[in-house]
Design goal:
Elements (H helix, E strand, L loop, with lengths): L1 E5 L2 H18 L4 E4 L6 H14 L7 E4 L1 E3 L10 H8 L11 E2 L8 H14 L5 E4 L21 E4 L2 H7 L13 E4 L2 H5 L3 E6 L5 H9 L17 E6 L9 H9 L9
Parallel strand pairs: 1-10, 2-3, 2-6, 3-5, 6-9, 9-10
Antiparallel strand pairs: 4-8, 7-8
The structure holds 2-phosphoglycolic acid.
């Protein structure tokens, strides 16, 4: 596990964008796992800039999004379909046929979830998964006590997540769907590489529990301690409760020259 603490969310996101651009350059037909929410917004802006200014080419890239609200149509501004096209896909040269987002309007959730898992497998698996973290330590919408072995399925959101996401629904909790489709923790852990982004003081407890706490389904992101290739790209406020932050900075300052680009 690599913990990289940046001054602010913008510089952490710039590092994430450089990392993703490097993956795409090395493997133009790579498979990316993508996240929504406020955390990846700057990252997606940077990728759009890299596409426009530096020709970063998404034409062969395939994407799988982590999750979607059940009951929201793709054209609903609160849906993650809408979010992804608004903030990224409509601004880059990705082939819409290579875009995969869970279908929040499916009339057969279990069949859809099995299909989504199969499609990830048939694509060759996710090369790089981008993650954000919930204040309760969730990844995707895998709320506390989600099984570490879980696959794509329906979940019921916690009150905390509903309250926290109400800001996207005019601060009206009653408008936030209570059910979602989300990749499972087992699905996320199958990705070859994982980039976790976490910004702001509200994430400090979840970040510390995930990196330095015991591995426990109570903090879903703590399973990342068991992944071989995971990087936490976090800002100073999100790092506030880490006991070993000086050590993580020490390591970063001493990265070997060949690995310094990040
Ligand atoms: P946020 O959500 O990026 O809007 O903070 C992250 C999450 O809940 O996973």
């Amino acid at each position: 596990m690599e913990v990289i603490i940046s001054q602010d969310a913008k510089s952490a996101s710039d590092k994430a964008a450089r990392y993703i651009a490097d993956v795409i350059t090395r493997k133009p037909d790579c498979v990316l796992g993508l996240a929504t929410g406020s955390t990846p917004l700057h990252l997606y802006n940077r990728l759009v800039q890299m596409h426009k200014n530096d020709g970063l080419d998404f034409s062969k890239v395939t994407t799988f999004n982590l999750d979607e609200y059940l009951g929201l149509k793709p054209e609903d501004p609160q849906s993650y379909h809408y979010f992804m096209f608004e903030n990224l896909f409509s601004k880059i040269n990705i082939d819409p046929r290579n875009v995969n987002i869970p279908d929040g309007m499916t009339d057969n959730v279990m069949t859809f979830c099995n299909y989504y898992e199969r499609k990830i497998r048939e694509s060759g698996g996710i090369d790089l998964q981008i993650l954000g973290i919930g204040t309760d330590g969730h990844i995707g919408f895998n709320e506390p006590t989600s099984s570490f072995a879980s696959r794509t399925r329906i979940k019921t959101l916690t009150r905390e997540t509903i309250q926290s996401n109400a800001r996207f629904f005019g601060n009206d909790e009653s408008k936030v769907p209570q059910h979602v489709i989300t990749m499972g923790i087992g699905t996320v852990m199958d990705a070859a590489n994982i980039l976790m982004l976490a910004f702001g003081k509200d994430k400090a407890n979840a970040v510390a529990a995930s990196i330095e706490g015991p591995v426990s389904a109570f903090t879903p992101a703590s399973i990342l301690q068991m992944h071989r290739h995971v990087k936490f790209l976090i800002d100073e406020p999100a790092a506030a409760n880490l006991k070993l932050s000086d050590y993580y900075k020490w390591v970063y300052d001493r990265k070997p020259e060949w690995n310094r680009w990040l």
